[in-house]
Each structure stands twice: as structure tokens, then as C-alpha cells.
């Protein structure tokens, strides 16, 4: 089952009308069914709903997490559950206790080894001198602050971690945006976030997400575009997918791609200390912008779903691509 946010209007804006769509494959992703709509924005009295994470819950339910944008100052992740393999769904419950604009990307909700659930999210405060939550489209600040929300009862209740992370760079216009998190073999949590500083910035937690280290540049060069990472089930290595910044000065950054090309991947056998040979998923010659990658392993392959709009679309979010890559085709360190 593949669930994704599907835009249904003519606008390319983040807050354009959208719904949550679902389609199925019975042959490992080679062919897919038509869409079935499983959630609509009007059910939440929201502008739109998007950015889906799927997770198997402790009692066997399917957990469907998605971002509900009610206004520019009110956007939070919600959870619905299905006990019949996606045929019917429960009412949505908000996972973020306090009102505010908390952005969580697709495929970001993580269950730790001990059972704890963790949601990495970027808080955007209201901008300007007056913060009036009664004004639906009041402008929010583009500079994100990384927050983490925790659940120790399989998603029934949520609480904010004891600390958050800010980017100590006074000239940054992004702060820490669209964070992700993964658990390392030694129990340390490794988090990262996109910035406009030329790199993904990284943070670490030694206490299962309660407190976090100060954000610092990672080894991943990157434009203002998210990185995705998952652990490979057959060998325990890490697979990362991201947009690097090619190291040459005459590279043109297209307005329609935001520098989100090429799209590459790499594997680490030592929990992120070193990375193997890079492999291309999309090249600059493909002309598109590629981002927001969801990663799922199926048998001897990995399924990668990501936005893949081309300049004629007017937005890199206008197309969705699912690519199936055999693990035998990926360089393993």
C-alpha cells in the first residue's frame, strides 16, 4: 500500500487543495492500482493535508500520520489507525499538543528499539510584531526550530521532548527545516535538517530523544532540500538519499528546481561515519527537481517515491515518481 498527498487544484503552492490518496501493488511495485481517496482536507476544516508517514503499530494496526494545515499559523501532524489493513480508518487525533505551525515531512515518524515513537518536526513561529492566532493567514517565520515529540504508549498520547534545536547562524533564512531522525546501533539518535548554509545540519540525542546536542554541519552537502535515510533490513547498513551540491562554480541553479538535482544515494556500513560509492537516481541532465524521498524495502529491492517535476510543470512538486532499485545494483561498502 502506497499512500501519498495528492494535489487536486491548479495551484502549485504548498497550501493548495490536496487530499490523501492510496494505491496498491501485488507484484512488488512493478504495477499499481488506480487511486483511492482515503482522507480529505474538508474533514479537518483545513486548507490541505499532506506529508504522509506509514507505520505498523504495536497492536498490528496501520498508523497513518499526515500533516493537517489549517492556516499558516496552525499546522500539525495527525494520526489515524486502521485495524483492517487500510479498509477503514479511525478518527484523526492530533500528535502535537500545543497550537502552532509544526512541519513534519513525509516518511519521518520513527519507532525506536524500545518501542518509543518519535516525530521530528520544525516549528515556525509567527512573524511580525503582533502574533494573533485568530488571523488565519498571519505570516509565519521561515526560520525553523527543530522539535521532537515522543509517545511511549503507541501513539495514544504525545509530549514534547525536554530540549529543542536552533541554528546558531544569524544570517540564515531557513534555520533548521524538515528534520529527520534515525536510531544508531549504539542507541544514539541521529537527527538532521535542511538549511541554507550549504549542508544538512546534524544533532544527536543520547537519551532516546529527550535532549539534543547543538546543531552543527554534517558531511552531507545540500541545497535547501531534505535528506532521507533508512536502515537496510538485510544487512543493517544505512541508505541515504539526498541532493548534493556539485563542486563547481559555474553550476546554474534553476528557479524551477531549487538546486534539487541530481538525486543520489549512498550506503554506510559503519552507522554513518563513512559512506560508500555514490549512485545516481536522477541526474542534472534529466532537467527536473527531485525531493521528499520515501524509502521502503521490498524483497531484494528498495522502493523510492519522490517528487519529480520538470520546468514545464511550473513546480517540482507537480509529479510523483516511484523508482524500484535492485539492491544488487547498489554499491555496498
SSE arrangement:
Elements: E1 2-7, E2 18-23, E3 36-40, E4 48-56, E5 62-71, E6 74-82, E7 93-94, E8 102-103, E9 110-111, E10 117-123, E11 145-151, E12 159-160, E13 177-183, E14 189-194, E15 199-205, E16 216-221, E17 228-231, E18 238-242, E19 263-268, E20 279-282, E21 289-298, E22 301-309, E23 320-326
Summarize the structure.
With 333 residues, the chain is mostly beta strands. The protein has strands at 2-7, 18-23, 36-40, 48-56, 62-71, 74-82, 93-94, 102-103, 110-111, 117-123, 145-151, 159-160, 177-183, 189-194, 199-205, 216-221, 228-231, 238-242, 263-268, 279-282, 289-298, 301-309, 320-326. Strands 8, 9, 10, 11 and 12 form a 5-stranded antiparallel β-sheet that branches. The protein has a 4-stranded antiparallel β-sheet with strand order 4-5-6-7, with no helix packed on it. It has a 4-stranded antiparallel β-sheet with strand order 13-14-15-16, with no helix packed on it.
Write out key terms for the chains shown.
333 residues, mainly beta, five-stranded antiparallel beta sheet, four-stranded antiparallel beta sheet
Output the structural class.
mainly beta
Mean pLDDT: 93
Cα gyration radius (Å):
19 Å
What's the helix-strand series? EEEEEEEEEEEEEEEEEEEEEEE
- The portion of residues assigned to helices is under 10%
Amino acid at each position: 500500500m502506497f499512500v501519498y498527498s495528492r494535489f487536486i487544484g491548479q495551484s502549485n503552492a504548498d497550501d493548495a487543495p490536496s487530499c490523501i490518496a492510496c494505491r496498491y501493488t501485488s507484484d512488488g511495485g512493478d504495477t499499481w492500482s488506480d487511486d483511492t481517496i482515503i482522507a480529505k482536507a474538508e474533514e479537518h476544516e483545513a486548507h490541505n493535508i499532506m506529508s504522509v508517514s506509514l507505520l505498523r503499530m504495536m497492536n498490528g494496526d496501520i498508523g497513518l500520520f499526515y500533516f493537517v494545515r489549517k492556516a499558516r499559523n496552525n499546522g500539525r501532524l495527525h494520526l489515524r489507525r486502521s485495524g483492517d489493513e487500510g479498509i477503514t480508518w479511525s478518527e484523526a487525533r492530533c500528535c502535537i499538543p500545543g497550537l502552532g505551525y509544526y512541519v513534519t515531512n513525509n516518511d519521518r515518524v520513527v519507532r525506536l528499539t524500545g518501542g518509543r515513537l518519535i516525530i521530528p518536526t520544525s516549528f515556525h513561529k509567527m512573524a511580525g510584531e503582533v502574533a494573533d492566532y485568530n488571523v488565519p493567514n498571519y505570516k509565519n517565520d521561515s526560520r525553523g526550530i527543530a522539535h521532537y515529540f515522543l509517545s511511549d504508549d503507541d501513539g495514544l498520547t504525545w509530549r514534547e521532548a525536554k530540549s529543542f534545536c536552533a541554528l546558531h547562524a544569524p544570517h540564515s533564512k531557513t534555520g533548521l527545516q524538515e528534520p529527520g531522525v534515525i536510531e544508531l546501533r549504539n542507541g544514539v539518535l541521529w537527527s538532521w535538517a535542511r538549511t541554507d548554509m550549504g549542508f544538512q545540519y546534524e544533532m544527536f540525542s543520547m537519551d532516546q530523544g529527550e535532549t539534543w546536542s547543538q546543531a552543527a554541519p554534517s558531511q552531507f552537502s545540500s541545497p535547501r532540500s531534505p535528506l532521507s535515510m533508512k536502515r537496510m533490513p538485510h544487512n543493517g547498513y544505512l541508505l541515504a538519499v539526498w541532493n548534493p551540491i556539485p563542486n563547481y562554480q559555474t553550476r546554474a541553479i534553476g528557479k524551477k528546481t531549487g538546486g534539487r538535482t541530481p538525486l543520489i544515494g549512498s550506503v554506510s556500513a559503519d552507522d554513518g561515519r563513512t559512506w560508500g560509492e555514490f549512485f545516481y537516481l536522477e541526474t542534472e541532465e534529466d532537467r527536473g527537481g527531485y525531493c521528499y524521498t520515501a524509502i521502503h524495502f521490498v524483497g531484494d529491492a528498495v522502493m523510492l517515491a519522490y517528487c519529480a517535476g520538470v520546468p514545464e510543470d511550473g513546480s517540482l512538486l507537480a509529479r510523483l515518481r516511484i523508482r524500484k532499485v535492485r539492491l544488487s545494483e547498489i554499491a555496498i561498502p
